[in-house]
Amino acid sequence: MRVVMYFIIVAFYSAGYSQKPKITEALNSALYTENKMQRSNPANSYKISWHQGYKVKDSLLYIHFTKTDTLSKCSYTVYRTVNIYNINAVAKDINVVFLTRPNAVKEVITYNKCAANTATPRTETYYSDLFFTEIRSAKNNEDLAVRLQQAFAESCLQINIPYWYD
Q1: Contact 152, 27 (CB under 8 A)
Q2: Contact (Cβ atoms closer than 8 angstroms) between residue 148 and residue 124
Q3: Burial environment of residue 75 by CB neighbours within 10 A (0 to 12, 13 to 18, 19 or more)
Q4: 66-99 confidence digits (pLDDT tens)
Q5: Which contiguous run of DSSP H or E holds residue 106?
Q6: Residue 38, exposed/middle/buried by CB under 10 A (0-12, 13-18, 19+)?
Q7: DSSP one-letter string for 122-158
Q8: Model's pTM, two decimal places?
Q9: Rounded to an integer, what distance in angstroms lies between the CA atom of residue 130 and that of residue 158?
Q10: Which residues of 134-149 are buried (b: 16+ CB within 10 A; e: fewer)?
């Protein structure tokens, strides 16, 4: 009986852990589309350089990018993380965001030296309950919310979709 129970537990946990790539797969697919839309929009006053796509490692979802204002040439680098077990919902107003437990999102921002500003670079750390995905350009993309909800469910995690506005 113990052997059977052991295999059931191992199967349950390995099924959950093996599905985490589906979360990053859905996010990175949307990020690829977002990147194409931003680059093709001449009205964009900023450029995002992705250091890497979304990753989940040790239950931490993270993204790392640099955003540059094309007019002022000022930039900042963002390293954003959240434990996927702290994510409660996915929603969209202007951005697609993950709603989390209080202060579950850690964001380390390095403000780089700016041509218009003589201040030296500085790094600040913020905590919040909103994980901004930087996905915002696509309209009528409720399918992303459903794909994310399914990907989390396949990892034995439940998230809600409280609202999705374009």
Answers
A1: no
A2: no
A3: buried
A4: 998 888 888 999 999 999 999 999 999 989 999 9
A5: strand 105-111
A6: middle
A7: EEEEEEESEEE-S--S-SS-HHHHHHHHHHHHHTT--
A8: 0.83
A9: 17
A10: bbbbeeebeebbebbb
Q: Are 80 and 106 in contact (CB under 8 A)?
A: yes
Q: What is the CA radius of gyration of the chain?
A: 18
Token pair of 148 as six digits: 């994310």
DSSP string, 40-81: H-TT--EEEEEEEEEEEETTEEEEEEEEEETTT--EEEEEEE
Strand partners, 110: 77, 123
**Would you state the pLDDT for residue 116?**
65
Q: What is the pLDDT of residues 139-155, one digit of tens each?
A: 999 999 999 999 999 99
* Cβ pair 98, 26 in contact under 8 A: no
- Phi then psi dihedrals of residue 114, to 5 deg: -115, 140
The number of beta carbons lying within 10 Å of the beta carbon of residue 118 is 7
